[in-house]
Amino acid sequence: MKANIHPDYRIVVFHDLSANTYFKVGSTIKTDRTVVLDGQNWPYVTIDISSASHPYYTGKQKEFSKEGSTARFQQRFGRFIGSKK
């Protein structure tokens, strides 16, 4: 195997800005920013969405299966179909 071809693998702190949650994960991402967490200095990366804020993982997604697509169509456009002027 060739030496010095693999990226540096280390623990990195990811900060989900929308949920204000921190995750310590092993990663090869390159960053110059650092943060002090739990009394230690860690490489730091901000992210917009994670499992703490994504609607699928939090259970806040819309459930379209509660009514059929035809019912949704009639609710939206039914008033326009019946009135032809």
From TrEMBL:
One of its GO terms (cellular component) is ribosome. InterPro entries: Ribosomal_bL28/bL31-like_sf, Ribosomal_bL31, Ribosomal_bL31_B, Ribosomal_bL31_sf. It comes from the Bacteria. Keywords: Ribonucleoprotein, Ribosomal protein. GO terms for molecular function: structural constituent of ribosome. GO terms for biological process: translation. Part of the 50S ribosomal subunit. Belongs to the bacterial ribosomal protein bL31 family. Type B subfamily. This is Large ribosomal subunit protein bL31B. It comes from Chania multitudinisentens RB-25.
